[in-house]
Design brief:
Layout lengths: L2 E5 L3 H14 L4 E5 L2 H10 L4 E4 L2 E2 L2 E2 H10 L5 E6 L4 H9 L4 E4 L4 H17 L7 H8 L17 H13 L6 H8 L3 H13 L3 E6 L7 E6 L6
Parallel strand pairs: 1-2, 1-3, 3-6, 6-7
Antiparallel strand pairs: 4-5, 8-9
Length: 227
Amino acid sequence: MTNILIVEDDPMVQFIHRNYLEKIGTFTNIYSSETISEARNLLATRSIQLILLDIRLKDGNGIDLLTELRRTKQTVDVILITAANEVEIINDALHLGVIDYLIKPFTLQRFEKSIHRFYAKNRMFDSDQLNQNQLDAYLEPQPHASAPLELDKGLSMATLKIIQEAIAQLSQPFTVPQLTAKTGLSHVSVRKYLNFLEAHHFLKSDTIYRKTGRPFKTYQLLTTLPI
């Protein structure tokens, strides 16, 4: 379960954030707050894993809330989304450990990249130990030379990346329940992306028939996705 909190005092910007998140479709609950005070109340009463935080708010400064979260050792991750582009502010935010810093205005593609970084970090720290290659993959992502896929309607690149990374960590072949457990996505969402990948020949499926019970499908990755 992944819950997100939008801290933004402009209702239209709140709507844009929520609309983008719903397109990506990987969060259980999306909460909203127009003030730091409301944000504190939600953080005290809800389980929040990620905050989309503006800086200039009605009752204070988002950097002050971020500083408070770090001082009290709250483990919630933060992406700053703001029009503030001053180097001093950006430097403070990076020192306080934000996942990403988005300067308004931005595109859906750039927004998806931030959400992908959040999920990549959480999957990385889901283990007891890490090796250098795993750290390098997170800290120094390699650019992709290939053109991005043209996705079917209702699919997002950020969710496709989550699927891709999860598949790479599973033993081959794998099943829908295994991928669902790994990603935290619904069975319906997982099947949509698997159908898309199979149609584009990135993986293949086999139907396994048993003496008793219903048959089930396994999937095998054929090639790395160009994303």
